[in-house]
Amino acid sequence: MRTKRKRLRVSLLLAFVLAGFVLIVPNFSAQYRPLYEVIPLGLPEDTWKFYVPKNNPLSAAKVELGRKLFFDARLSADGKISCSSCHDPKLAFTDGKTVAEGIAGRIGTRNSPSLFNIVFNPQQFWDGRTDTLEQQAVEPLVNPLEMGNASHAAVIERLRALSEYRAEFQSVFSGEITIERLSQAIAAYERTLLSGDSPLDRFLAGDEDAISAEAKRGFAIFRGRARCARCHAFTDQRPFFTDFAYHNTGVAAIHPDFNRLAHQAAAAAETDQAKPVIDKLGREAGGQELGRILVSYQLFDVGSYRTPSLRNVGVTAPYFHNGSAKTLADVVKFYNDGGRHNLNIDEELNTLQLTGDEQRDLVRFLESLTGK
User: Fold this and answer.
1) Quick one: pLDDT at residue 45?
2) pTM score
3) Could you tell me which CATH number the domain at 2-190 has?
């Protein structure tokens, strides 16, 4: 009875604060769930609300304003790039490209990750350089490789010239347009991008026929011989297939300049010259492959990136922070071979010696994580 009352309270909370959840359907077009529906099967009903900050409570109007901003290309300097350009609902909020492409066709350095369940990330971006969705929402606005604005002030000036936005910000925030309020609106929308109810969720809920025999074998391999679950952790309260930590699996070492840059960064790490030296290395060709050390300046972060969630991994190719793996079979083969050796490779990585059939079963399991 207590569990039922808890679920009812959570359902009522969601009904009042959300304009609707985005739903993935077979052709991957975005739709809105009705207000009264609970969050998808497999996600923690009693956890989600704790990820909504008190200084940015949700409301239907704020979520709708954030949705409008998310899809509005007028936020970019040339009026052609919106948040959805790199995070397309039809592609599970990715873009299907190796790395992001921004204003004037400029090529970025990182693959565009899915935004589904991003609310649960303790930090944002592949390297964890921001702690909140509010911070994440406004970084691309002034990135010269993304939306290309000279400053946040330039974006706000442009929006203040639009009567529709002046009225909506006044209605939602009881004030004028500011960069803080813009970030709050977009972040509010992003907190509603939830995905669950995958075949695996239904299998774990008791439907034995929800996944194939191959996927069941793959699940056993995932938790056993392949050791995937050591980083792609899965628990009742954190069922996201990620430990949210940062690991060097050797993907960065694919870049021909990585080893040279990594050794220089390692030598400078944790010295009084760490920041200027590592920042300079980050601006060199291939420097962005240094990963989280560009944020932390800590030796153990050389070439490290956040463990991505595996939910919807079957529909978010290509893979890795640099988009270097085109298929799930490529990903499995990379780890079956033990990653790529470098000075800071995670000690958990070794060759797995999975057979061809075992690798295919593992791929079938990963495909069972595609949700709604």
Assistant:
1) 74
2) 0.89
3) 1.10.760.10
